[in-house]
Known about the structure:
Blueprint: E1 8-9, H1 20-31, H2 43-63, E2 70-73, H3 76-86, H4 88-93, E3 98-102, H5 107-115, E4 122-126, H6 136-142, E5 147-151, H7 165-171, E6 178-182, E7 198-202, E8 213-217, H8 247-282, E9 288-289, E10 300-304, H9 310-316, E11 321-322, H10 338-342, H11 347-351, E12 354-357, H12 367-378
Parallel strand pairs: 1-11, 3-4, 3-5, 5-6, 6-7
Antiparallel strand pairs: 2-8, 7-8, 9-10, 10-12
Amino acid sequence: MSPLNRPVYLDCAAxxxxxxxxxxxxxxYLEVDFGNASSRAHGWGLEAKRAVETxxxxxxxxxxxxxxxxxxxxxxxxxxxxxxxGLLENARSRGLDHVITTAIEHKAVLEPVLAxxxxxxxxxxxxxxxxxxxxxxxxxxxxxxxxxxxxxxxxNNETGRVQPIEEIAGLLxxxxxxxxxxxxxxxxxxxxxxxxxxxxxxxxxxxxPKGVGALVARKRGFQRPPLxxxxxxxxxxxxxxxxxxxxxxxxxxGKAAELCxxxxxxRRESCTLYxxxxxxxxxxxxxxxNGEGAEFxxxxxxxxxxxxxxxxxxxxxxxxxxISSGSACTSARYQASHVLRxxxxxxxSVTGATxxxxxxxxIQPDWEGIRERILRLIR
Length: 379
């Protein structure tokens, strides 16, 4: 059990615990420097503006982008929608009507992209192989001169499987389409190739508060991606995202990005060790790892154990650990994972899959007690 006599939190792929240094920054801009970043006639407003621009630089460094390419949003879902719908006007003006994405995307990409079909656009959804990896050859076969957007997540939020973004970026080197990456799980953990035009991220995946994220829109040469806003009123964020900036949240996101850069290697080592221990402790139960491959994020593990339903497992372990059955946006409905179904796994693997995810702050649970509870389910 955790120090507060609560289950050990193993759902960091859904949301991470806040870093103490991030909390300090957020608290400062809530209590002390609480001004509006658009109020430039006094010190409070100027300090708020300075905090926002500092955060923009901090996020830009991690994204390998220029500060003026970082646009703050409420999170990756909004950023994804801004990409998908923000490019439509330009696509229509050029006579382009084709979008490529994958069957393992987060619903924050899949649902907006599929909605384009009702607007007359063609959508190609590429399935993964059984390891959860998108094959670049299949993407290449679907690419056409009418394709204006390719959207592929960097690393899957349910399995942790890393996608071949470097290869996809190479494939598209001479193609004019825009390459978008949902980097909610990978931002601050993996480098993102320079050919990627648009990057979505969420603060609460990297130990910052919920409700803040960013869209990084990299320029090609001196030209910005031709995005149009989803809503209007004020011209904030270079006209792409109107509304008063949530300075405490943005400052927290910036600090979290800075810590990703500063502490990235020890965090990765800690998560890799935790994964090793977890697999060793569960080894006697013969878990099947869903999405195992050459490249994976070290803080996510998706496993199935023969004869055990995911919901039964979660309920049996709820006093020991907090785990999930997949994406936090869909797990509350107890629906079978669209990601695992797309991987063409057998039914028992799909219905029995649980996601365990942790971070450098995660403590070890009572593994003996966990094994005993799982064995009772099998008996």
